[in-house]
Amino acid sequence: MLTQQELNEYSGFDIIGDIHGCAKTLVKLLQKLGYRFINGCYRHSSRVVVYLGDIVDRGPHIREALEIVHSMVERKAAVCIMGNHEYNAVSYCTPAPEGLGRRYLREHNAHHNRLIGETLEQFAAYPVEWREYIEWFTTLPLFYETDSFRVVHACWDQALIDQYRDTYHCNRVNSEFIVKSVDRQSFEGRLMDRLTRGTDIPLPEERVITSKDGFQRRFFRTKFWAQSPKTYGDVAFQPDPLPKDLVDRPLSDLEKSNLICYPKGERPVFIGHYWLQGKPKPVTSNIACLDYSAVKYGRLAAYRYDREPVLDASKFMWVYVDPPEWREPEAE
Ligand SMILES: [Mn+2]
């Protein structure tokens, strides 16, 4: 992995959000950003890519997307952190220790099978390669920071990150951590959940929202930067709207105490994860989300970061995901 000193030699950082198997669009975005394929990977003479995780699942060219990202990370042309989908892949494919009551760390139920289905299908003929990627995922950092910015897949929680550093003395996971994290109540489980999935609030009165991708949700995703929020509407941050009658519902003291707030004066943090739509722009002056729903014909988005303390809407770049990303490659 790139050291801090090596990173500082680059003039800037191109931070790229959730790819989800849209490899053709990724190539277009890298080219638009000035990267060229030289000596085994895409690279730039003076810039480096930071991938925010969620390379796998859902899209049509997952194996190709992994090849592009992995080759860049190997050759120090990029850094890649872990998304919840890489974590899911590792735990889905890792046999459980005895006594857990199931064969794999992540249960093979209908919901989980469906989420990872595209990935396993596309790797069906390449089992050795898939095994190597699983081993690679097991070593990915959960968060990353330099003197000027921070990245995490879903939520920067300083208290948990500090505790992690005190315990593990690094920012990467390992197989022991992965096994412990299966228990959602453990420190490892809470950290993994918080950093790769963010904060959320359970819906009251056992209500359910059916999300746009057809899943039933019993909670809604919340901001980790809301300053003294009062209602559900003040903290909701997800593509599926809250039911109208819940928007003005006051947050209880318990709900408030479970929220966190990334301070306004802190260095910028970049996240993916949230399926945003529309024209990319910063979420706040020091938070930018780069997940613009690429895999649902949205945009694959990047932010060209040059160490500025205040984020700027003009520094987003993107490529629209065309239907051809989804068609079989034509015979050439
Ligand atoms: Mn994602």
From TrEMBL:
Domain Calcineurin-like phosphoesterase: 14-144
Superkingdom classification of source: Bacteria
Top-level taxonomy: Bacteria, Pseudomonadati, Pseudomonadota, Gammaproteobacteria, Alteromonadales
Stated name of the protein: Metallophosphoesterase
Record organism: Halioxenophilus aromaticivorans
GO MF annotation list: phosphatase activity
Pfam families reported for this sequence: Metallophos
InterPro entries xrefs: Ap4A_hydrolase, Calcineurin-like_PHP, Metallo-depent_PP-like
GO cellular component terms, semicolon-separated: cytoplasm
